[in-house]
């Protein structure tokens, strides 16, 4: 019975997705740089930089409570001023490493610019960004960002 239990345990571990528990410092540094460059490009409204950083098939669960499924739509929202900020600070906290994918989880503080939803308010958000390596390049493939409710903003 012990042999069957051990074999089942080994099989279940072997069937998990490839995931490195220990961080690759060089890769973490590269992805951190890309993640912060993405935040800076959004803050500056730099569509050319965002075009290079984001996968063509990017999907975003956006803080405006919508799922945006196309890079063009995201770039249009930036051009229309729906996504525009007077301040944008991103703090990556956790990096998860998979085959050809790195997931970044963290915290953001943004102040939407005049004319954007929630203009002038300081908003704290939690975010998850997934960077995937395609054709030798790391690109942002999907993102989830949500505003943290005011009573819930205290950090433990």
UniProtKB/TrEMBL annotation:
Pfam families: DUF4440 (PF14534)
Signal sequence annotation: 1-20
Entry keyword set: Signal
Gene3D superfamilies in the record: 3.10.450.50
SUPFAM superfamilies: NTF2-like
InterPro entries according to UniProt: DUF4440, NTF2-like_dom_sf
Top-level taxon of the source organism: Bacteria
Domain (DUF4440) ranges: 31-140
Protein name: Nuclear transport factor 2 family protein
Organism listed in the record: Luteimonas galliterrae
